[in-house]
Amino acid sequence: MSTPEHELDTSGAGSAAQRAQPPAEDLDWRRVHPVTPLVRGWAVVGAAVVILGQQSLDGGPRGGLIALVSSEYWWTLFAALAAVAAVGWGYSVLAWRMTTYAIGEETVHLRRGILFRQQRHARLDRLQSVDIRQPLVARFFGLCELTLETAGGTDSGVAIGFLKGSDADELRAELLARAAGLKVARTGPAGSGRRQPPSGTVAAPAGPGHAGSVPVGPVPVGPVPVGTGPEGQPQDAGPQAGFPHAGGPDGPLGGPTGPPTLEAPQIPVLSVPLGRLIASVVRSGAMITLVVWALVVVVVMIVTGEFAVISASLPAVLGAGGYLFGRLTGEFDFRVAISPDGVRLRHGMLETRSQTIPPGRVQAVRLVQSVLWRGRDWWRVQVNVAGYGGESEEKNSVLLPVGTRDEALTVLSLVLPDLGVDEPRRVLDAGLDGNSRTESVYVTAPRRTRILDPVAWRRNGFAVTGRALLLRRGRMVKILDVVPHERTQSLGLSQGPWQRRLGVASFQVHSTEGPVHPEAPHLDAADAARLMAEQAMRARSARAAAGPERWMERQGE
User: Where are the domains of the chain?
Assistant: First the structure.
């Protein structure tokens, strides 16, 4: 069974919401920042430098690049580089002139392309996340790229860049407000305006798949009961808490006077200390592999006396080192906050990313722990969000790079506040630990499967709550997958020849593209078949009872 939760229509027609949009000619089309060609064109120049340097080293005069620069033909190298730079920046300027965007009531429009014109439409009621990316070069100019992720699969996002940092923040706030179902009066060039909440409460409905009301006061960093809001008892934040005014010193965020702001308030939840992040990378499998490989290379070099071993192993060392460096720089200064717009993440050293995941957009959650993290009881939390995938999967799908168990359950409660069970902590601890005291909570694989999985067969199992399906597996690497019932895309059973002989089968939940692949291996065949039939009915009922896609709209509207 499958459900098309989200879509990105690139044809310019099809849905009723898009047909209700004003004609494209009536929209206010705007260009991105004029410095954009300079930010994008540097990549062409950098690639040209690498290519020309390689060519000169391979086929230039004797002595390589230094001899070429010092010879009478030195000008040819710089002339070629200048020509490539002119072509690259000229193309970037032309592409900038042909790129425009517009914000409608229901849809974001983007036009681009030189020889082949392309127009994309992203429906705001299908918005999965809004990210602000700031590459290293763009940071020198104070520019950002705003990306809207939808459920169209890989490369389905709409990227608007580059914009001034303040304009990008205002545009993100406006898009999230429109996606939430609020009326926004535009007053600024890039999306500034004010929110006009619908009549009644402005707190998000606490229905299935939604984050509920935003709590008042600080969110504790510690064990948060999954089954309630981040403070234990959800409260109606009220219009002021959800939509404050900026200005004088007397209001919630400066006073009731002064110009209104679109930016919703956020409550910091936690941040990852740099020392813990470095320690987690040192304790990773990639680091252990790199160290062992280096020791082997040194031993081989000493025994054989051949220094060529170092150059032969250099690609593998650079690959592993690059991965570890990317982990450190990408997850540097990782911060988590909650707001009426959803979960907000900010991280990055060389390239900063500011992500906003609206309520109910997380398709599946994974809590994973390697054996090297067992002593500290650290966990990594990853999510599937429709639209994330491909090259951006590793960077965008991390909800918590490394944290204690309490912190991991805290961020889980942000995306799934109500687990639908009386003792949520007991169920989650049983999924994380799998100890004998809590085995009755989970339906586990039968003892006869120890021949198929002698190490982890006791941990393979599942548990069903009122709101989600929990699947656990693994012993060396412990994994707990949590899938809200209404986010179940499709279900499957697989059974190999040895499994058929033993009367067992593996159960899978098919989610959107991402790092989470929920599975419970080697279940009893009868248990797996019963789970598949019952989960199909639960998913159908949960989708029928789920709240509106525009989470600030009331259920009756």
Answer: 36-97, 121-263, 274-330, 360-545
